[in-house]
Amino acid sequence: MSDEYILVTGGAGYIGSHTVIELINHGYKVVIADNLSNSSYDAVARIEFIVKQHVPFYKVDIRNEKELNQVFSNHKISGVIHFAALKAVGESTKIPLEYYDNNVSGTIALLNVCKSNNVKTIVFSSSATVYGDVTRFGDNSMIPIPEHCPMDPTNPYGRTKFVIESILKDIYDSDELWKVAILRYFNPIGAHPSGLLGEDPLGIPNNLLPYLAQVAIGRREKLSIFGNDYNSHDGTPIRDYIHVVDLAKGHIAALAYLKNLQSKGLYREWNLGTGKGSTVFDVYHAFCRAVGKELPYEVVARRAGDVLDLTAKPDRANKELNWKAELTVDDACKDLWKWTTENPYGFHIDNYSWENFDGYNNRLHSFVNGPLKVNLANHGALIQKVLLDGVNMVKAYDNAADFKDKSNPFFGTTVGRFANRVAKGQFELNGKKYQLTQNEGNNNLHAGFNGFDKQDFLGPVVKHKDGKFLVDFLIVDKDGNDGFPGEVEAIVHYTIDESSVGIEYECRLLSGEATIVNMTNHSYFDVSDSANIDGTEVKLVTDQMMEVDAELIPTGKFVANEYVTDPIVLDEKKPFDNCFIVDDDNCGIDTRARPLKKVFEATHPKTNNKFTVETTEPAFQFYTGDGVNTKGFAKRCGFCVEPSRFIDAINHEKWANQVILKKGEVYGSKIKYGFTKK
Ligand code: NAD
Ligand code: UDP
């Protein structure tokens, strides 16, 4: 892969985010610069989740040449797709100076930086509004609208696009090495088919479909249809609605076209539209079909500035760019409805907030659900805090840097791709021997030096459904990392309700025939509200544990633990670091269909707090933290309950199928940590 990047300004926005996905799907590397004035970083987190890779992001205002130049210094930029702009027609008539400053001055600043870095390839987001009211020609000669139609924008927003096109033309005229693609969009609609990305208008939406979507989910009472006395088949105005994914693909086509010019330059405009006009009622009916019911509307007076027909003649783009819109208004309505139902308030979710922990890659996410406040971070998809009525029940650092300290005892993290020990770091799979890194004496512990706990997960995708927060983190672990075969994708799904943090793990092979997987969570819990867990009363579902040798590797036998009483009162003279057996019933690679079984309960006589563990897993490691010695925390500051497969299962024939993940299969497991009052 080339080390060249495409800079996408405004890449966190509606059209930009969809285009970034298409760019990456087409093999481009992308860097995003966006000041987030009309978007949210959550869109970028979701882009990363969809494309399963990191996308560098800079919170930069394009008017800030110095900061923008830094982006060019950090990445070798070969071309720019320039979306960043303010875009509300009505607003532009109220605050024209802001529009000229943001859009025109912003573009001048961007072009200055491009020029000084010798980057001369640019794709620019223009708009059909530059044509103005094409019915002014009277004879329908400009309907559908061709690119040679004279420009006559009717509002300040449209005029910023006209001015920018003119600037780009002048630059090309002064230096014909520039390659400039002007893309004039018609009416972008719809959302990403994944339901993860879409338009997220702030305040009351101006556009037809975003407004209608809010009517459909009950945020607005009814749609106002602005006039039904136009000269169309049903009296409402005609527009050329184009699915945002088709529009995004148009940018890839334009970029490829510019690239194919080799050393020649170009300045050229292309309409991006479908060529097919739809009336307001056509679109209204299509959306009602997607929703499955009639939505309330009222016909009101015409909206000032609206014209009868704005339909593209897209032939130039069809022929020259070899691009054609393929999706229909019905497709767009279906995707918009999915986006709307799954994200009724766009990226905004009540009682969820985040801040950078140590940058955008690793953010600290806070969720408040009734008495529970839970913090999660991207690093290791870790649980940083669980407060029950303000009392902390999880021990971990309060700043990101400390998590990277060598003495960190895996605080809060997801451990994988292989939790616990692999004897001598060796195993055999499909007749082939593998040597893993030996990071604990002879053995491999918790996957080695670069396990899931050491990496930043992508995402999260956060949703709120039925009173619960659903939070998904994703990681791609490379083939050969710490010696493990095959590239895998693992997803950590958290479910946070008023009394528990549920975790569901999923892992799939992306390359190779087979690998081994065993995932769990390594939080240090505490119900004592103090620095030491002694005195905690613990109930275990079983006293059967694995017999292990001096290196904590199983002998293959189960034995009873002499300290297991009912309840056990934790005491430093009776430390635990043992694997307890819940079920020896050949669970297979995916335990998620099994019922959650309560395996652990902890209370403390001095507090009112209760902690429970339920799981679908066949075993759990119970560790009383006797080895902890790190900044701010001493031994026995908390205990761990890590549901998982049997230790070193791969090296025991009768257990091996618990951990062998084959191509096409899914590793799965569930844990539910409960935090309640006694
Ligand atoms: P959007 O508001 O969702 O995206 C624009 C992005 O640019 C936002 O993320 C915003 O934060 C960012 N931005 C704005 N000013 C910036 C600045 N000074 N520095 C850095 N970032 C800045 O809008 P969109 O619908 O995705 O539109 C993208 C482009 O397409 C715009 O140029 C718009 O004018 C053009 N366009 C949009 C439509 C439409 O109907 N959506 C139609 C025709 C043309
Ligand atoms: N429209 C409407 N009600 C609304 C918003 C829009 O009837 O609440 C109509 C508007 O008159 C136009 C069409 O829908 O005919 C598309 O309007 P939009 O603002 O989405 O895009 P425009 O074509 O104006 O850029």
TrEMBL record:
Q: Which PANTHER family match?
A: UDP-GLUCOSE 4-EPIMERASE
What keywords are annotated for this sequence in UniProt? Carbohydrate metabolism, Isomerase, NAD
Which pathway does the database say it acts in?
Answer: Carbohydrate metabolism; hexose metabolism; Carbohydrate metabolism; galactose metabolism
Q: Kindly give the Pfam families that the UniProt entry links to this protein.
A: Aldose_epim, GDP_Man_Dehyd
What this chain does, per the entry, is described as: Mutarotase converts alpha-aldose to the beta-anomer. It is active on D-glucose, L-arabinose, D-xylose, D-galactose, maltose and lactose.
Domain NAD(P)-binding residues, every copy: 7-335
Name of the protein described by the UniProt record:
GAL10 bifunctional protein
Naturally occurring in which organism (per UniProt): Candida maltosa (strain Xu316) (Yeast)
- Which GO molecular function annotation, any one, does this entry have? carbohydrate binding
SUPFAM superfamilies from the UniProt entry: Galactose mutarotase-like, NAD(P)-binding Rossmann-fold domains
Q: Which family does it belong to?
A: In the N-terminal section; belongs to the NAD(P)-dependent epimerase/dehydratase family. In the C-terminal section; belongs to the aldose epimerase family.
Q: Which InterPro entries match?
A: Aldose_1/G6P_1-epimerase (IPR008183), Gal_mutarotase_sf_dom (IPR011013), Galactose_mutarotase-like (IPR047215), GH-type_carb-bd (IPR014718), NAD(P)-bd_dom (IPR016040), NAD(P)-bd_dom_sf (IPR036291), UDP_G4E (IPR005886)
Q: Per the record's keyword annotation, is Isomerase included, yes or no?
A: yes
What GO CC annotations are associated with the protein?
A: cytosol
Reactions that this protein is recorded to catalyse: UDP-alpha-D-glucose = UDP-alpha-D-galactose
Q: Identify the cofactor(s).
A: NAD(+)
Look up the domain of life of the source: Eukaryota
UniProt GO BP: galactose metabolic process
Q: Which NCBIfam families match?
A: galE, PRK10675.1
